Amino acid sequence: MKEFFHSVTLHEDKCVGCTNCVKRCPTEAIRIRNGKAFIASERCIDCGECIRICPHHAKRARYTHLDELDKFTYKIALPAPALYGQFNNLDDIDYVLTGLKQMGFDQVYEVSRAAELVSEATRKMMYNAETGANLPRPVISSACPAVVRLIRVRFPDLCDHVLPLKSPMETAAGMAKREAVEKTGLSEEQIGCFFITPCPAKVTDIKMPLGMEKSCVDGAIAISEAFPQLSHKMDHLECIEPIANSGIIGVGWSTSGGESAALLNEKYLAADGIENVIRVLEEVEDERIGDLDFIELNACAGGCVGGVLCVENPYVAKARIQRLRKYLPVSQNHLAGGPVPTEMEWEGELEFSNVMTLSSDLGEAMRMMVEIDNIEEELPGLDCGACGAPTCRAFAEDVVKGACKKTDCVFVYRKQMQKVASTISQLEGGLGWHPGDGNNDGEEDGK
Hints:
alpha/beta; 4-stranded parallel β-sheet; 3-stranded parallel β-sheet; 15 helices; 11 strands; 37% helix; 10% strand; globular
């Protein structure tokens, strides 16, 4: 496996170098070089913002395709609760779950079931006298992998605030596989778990998980890929299987604030949209947000229903989820008494990845910082993006790192050209030469 796997990919043939993605990337991972976008792998968090904003569809997401399911003997679908918001007039989740079985899955295990268990595990960890004291407040949800990776590369002081619990996707996959092994007698290698995903960040989280050595999920299928076939199957169902086994708490995880509400505590904050997430994290890092126990952050607007791999408008999907919840019980899944099961906890701590560090040598880093400051003073401070970098500060850093030249800034280049023109003009004046004087071929004026 490569050091960095990314589900977000660039298709250069469609890229026109328009800088839309450059300006919106939350980790400044994108530059325009030679008229095409370039993604720095070490900085990318696969939030999908560049996919959302690109008007030319030059950014795409990699995911598992439906024709890859046959690699496994026994296939399990793990539908994200955001999937339910894609269908109009849905009043029974069993329609969706039965439709998935008709698509060729042998078993369907709702991720919303695991979400209810994760909610209960969170309450146990946070308010237990022993474990709760070890969690710095405010505790930050670990459910959105794009947010976790953002913290990992940009907010080192907040790494220990991230809740050390596996996501509902991972919890569901582990439970589903154990059940399938007992039911079928097959080995885990013969059983494939496929998450029906609303976003590319989950694809990356499967390939390169944080907090654990290996994911239990074998692939992620985009909601947008599954939707047409699933809709067709749902329209032609002859009977509905009673599969659904989750409630309001689990399904509510699909929208912003759903996870927080499940904690049954009022001292929480929920924010969605990558720009709002960054503002909240900056204020938490600066200790400007106090008296909070829990913070839920979603990189996509509206929560998971706003993922770029969904097909429906996120606010329409959110309204549909709200209507669907009216027909559900509060919760149908609970942990046994005692501590949180170890298989639900992270296997290791979240470690800061210093991809934005200028140099490992402190003296060299300080020298580069001073040089960046000096170059930035020469720049116009417009953050126009014409140079291919998102900000003048980022451009100055690129210059110091040798990734580009100072004259790649059109304003610096224009100033230099003006200086050259002025110097030439002064030289011409000193020599007594004027335009037109050199074209007389030795003849006297007027002859």
